[in-house]
């Protein structure tokens, strides 16, 4: 079963159990996947990796929206975004701990031979395929900056 099929199956279950948060979140996510499928020159079926990227992007939107609502003193809306984020996190790979991320960054710095911030791009090129969805891009960049400073 593909990831997209899993999302659809879970949506059906959420609708049957009348779980409004899960159903709404999965509807929006499936819509984002379908939009990604038809964007570009030709329509195509997304692979599981491409679907995972869409889910990761949706999760990032929820995180950023929750932070914005917190800053605007709207805790009820921030809580809604976090509830949707919890639903999406079920489909994402396990997130790296800070220690695991620092270890991977140290290995990538050694592999690239970078000694200063000028080598950050090379380190990021090595890290991105290895981490793919298991850590936020901002968190990765911050770890690389710490390692190269």
Short description:
The chain has 149 residues and is mainly α. It is 74% helix and 0% strand.
Task: Chart the SSEs and their pairings.
Layout: H1 3-16, H2 20-38, H3 48-71, H4 75-89, H5 98-112, H6 120-131, H7 137-148
Helix pairs in contact: 1-2, 2-3, 2-4, 3-4, 5-6, 5-7, 6-7
What key attributes describe this structure?
7 helices, 149 residues, mainly alpha, 0% strand, 74% helix
Topology as a string of helices (H) and strands (E):
HHHHHHH
By DSSP, the count of extended strands is: 0
Number of helices, counting only DSSP H or I runs of 4 residues or more: 7
Q: Structural class, judged by helices and strands?
A: mainly alpha
C-alpha end-to-end distance: 45 Å
Major sheet characteristics: none
Helix percent reads over 70%
The outline comes out as globular
**β-strand amount:** under 5%
- Average predicted confidence as pLDDT: 90
Oligomer: single chain
Q: List segments where confidence is low: pLDDT < 50 over at least 5 consecutive residues.
A: none
Radius of gyration: 18 Å
Protein described:
The protein contains seven helices and no strands. Helices cover 74% and strands 0% of the residues. It is globular and about 55 Å long. With 149 residues, it is mainly alpha-helical. The longest helix is centred in the middle third of the chain and has 24 residues, at 48-71.
